[in-house]
Amino acid sequence: MSKFDDRGNPVSYRSQQAIDRLDRVFHLMHAYQADPLAEVDALLAEHPDFVMAHLFRAGALATATDRAFEPELVKSLTAAEELAPRANDRERLHIAACRSWLDGEWARGTELWGRASIEYPRDLVALQYAHLGDFSLGHSHLLRDRVARVLPHWNASVPGYGFIQGMYAFGLEESGDYRQAEARGRAAIDLNPQDGWAVHAVAHVMEMEGRANEGADFLASTAKAWAPNSLFAFHLWWHKALFHIDANDMTGALTLFDENISAGGFGQALELVDGSALLWRLSLLGHDVGGRWAGVADPWEARVDHAYYAFNDVSAMMAFVGAGRTGAQVRLIAAAQRAAAGQGTHAMMSREIGLPACQALASFGRGDYASTIEHMMPLRCKANRMGGSHAQRDMFSWTLTEAAVRLGDRALADALIAERLSWKPESPINRAWALRAGQLDRKRVDLC
Ligand SMILES: [Fe+2]
Questions:
Q1: CA–CA distance from 75 to each of 69, 136, 222 (Å)?
Q2: pLDDT one-digit tens code per residue, 276-317
Q3: From the CA of 388, how far away is ligand 1's center (Å)?
Q4: CA 438 to chain CA mean position, Å
Q5: Could you tell me the distance, in angstroms and rounded to a whole number, from the CA of residue 200 to the centre of ligand 1?
Q6: Beta bridge partners of 11
């Protein structure tokens, strides 16, 4: 006889008590609270043939987008595949999704988790993994629409309703519907103040609308609820640091780096991505970040040959340029070239974005700003293909604007700054760029 989880999804396992326990693990993951992997490991120690528990673990490890986790992902997926004959249809979709992801077909893996959420609209784990896949692939509108597909099947009586609102809020934000995004995000926070993804969605709205002081206050005032056991705190602190930078408070941003963003010791790529992105912005503005680059560059260098995810490669290159590690830059570009010549999702990402972006950043490190612009300008129209959020990909605009100013290309600098001011007219950073560009002579640039 079939058993069901607390949202009514069929589960092939025999023990209802173990299924209920896995529901509580799911809740931790949806809220980004510690520590669903430790909890599922304890569950699997007692129930080693619980296929959905293995699949939960495999999906969480896959969507962390770090090759360092791949051996554990293989372990979980292998266990699930061995149990496949007794799995149900929903679980077999999860198996296929994890297999595709592990084989480098991230887009197909994301679609398979998405298909599971279409067939089983209350399969919130499948939806969250598809949501994270969409995030890693830069599918801005699917971050919204994949959640919208299942909304008719949810209401406040279904456990996890707030998490659906939080995911939808982030998708709305990435799709530019800031008013509805903020309303949905705040509604989710009201239901569960520990919901890190909903807090994140509201922070993104404030980032995109240039509400720097309000954004910093919002994160500070809500942190008591989400921060203490959050596995996502480093990223929310990164957002707070961006607000500080946009309010011209570089000391506040560096303090957040030292005390919060680096608190996990940069043990995973997701933390390293934020470390690189923050130090890169500060360095571009001419701030001395001291020895902090080494703390980020060292763990990136341990991954230099991974060529696992273009977003990671670009983030690693920022650290190698910031730390002045030319040898690592050369190795990373060689790895990206190998990846670009391969197959699968990452090959596409490397060809389209990762490799030219790494070359642009390496050029910046050599002071060859014309080369930076040549490599990076054509990426603006398709930068989403390397994944991430609009706020993260703003790095392209930052780098190009600074390169144009340093090169003395007045026309390009004026154009990029006009773009930035149309978005954030009050930003002291944008105004400072405008002042510097205003001091440049308008000279003829040989464009052809
Ligand atoms: Fe974010």
A1: 10, 22, 37
A2: 999 999 999 999 998 999 999 999 999 999 889 999 999 999
A3: 8
A4: 35
A5: 6
A6: 3
CA 194 to chain centre: 19
34 contact partners, CB below 8 Å, separation of at least 6? 28, 229, 230, 231
Cα-to-centroid distance, 445 and ligand 1 (Å): 37
Instruction: Report d(CA 148, CA 154) in Å as an integer.
Output: 10
Task: Say if residues 36 and 63 touch (Cβ distance below 8 Å).
Answer: no
277 within 8 A of 314, measured Cβ to Cβ: no
Neighbours of ion ligand 1 (CB under 5 A): 389
* pLDDT tops 80 at residue 100: yes
Give the Cα separation of 134 and 107 in Å (integer): 8
Read off the tokens for 417. Answer: 């700054």
Structure tokens at 103: 């084989």
44-66 per-position pLDDT tens digit: 999 999 999 999 999 999 999 99
Q: Terminus-to-terminus CA distance in the chain, angstroms?
A: 72
0.85 exceeded by pTM: yes
Q: Which helix (H) or strand (E) holds 329?
A: helix 326-340
- 3 forms beta bridges with 11
| d(C-alpha 414, C-alpha 420), whole Å | 10
CA of residue 279 to ligand 1 center, whole Å: 16
Closest CA to 430 of 442, 417, 443, 441: 417
Q: How far away, in angstroms, is 135 Cα from ligand 1 center?
A: 10
C-alpha 235 – ligand 1 centre gap (Å): 6
For residue 273, report the distance from its CA to the centre of ligand 1, in Å: 11
Tell how far the Cα of 204 is from the centroid of ligand 1, in angstroms: 6
